[in-house]
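Record MmcQ/YjbR family DNA-binding protein, 120 aa.
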Amino acid sequence: MNRDEFDAYCKSLTATSSVVQWGNSSVWKVGGKIFAICSHWGPVDRDCISFKCADHSYQVLCELPGVVPAPYLARAKWVQVQTDETLSDDDVKSYIADAHAIIAAKLTKKQQRDLGLSTA
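=>
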């Protein structure tokens, strides 16, 4: 998945916003909190996609070739996908959607309602 495809997918998720920061990284947020990043962080000379994971997903993904604990964010259970060979675009999109849901769930109930993430 290239940066344009990454940006288009993240934009399609509910109540997202983006900024370009940290050395031209594409940073995606929900409710002001980051859920996914496309950047040149790390030892690979290409755009890599990083996202927040559930604990179990973090453990499983970090065992795959081309997926590493995300620089600066690993302690918060983030991974960085450094190759297109390990995960399909659909898999990456699924993990990004999960990351969006994980972060959205951490918002207050009022923020969730105001952003259209919850009807309760």
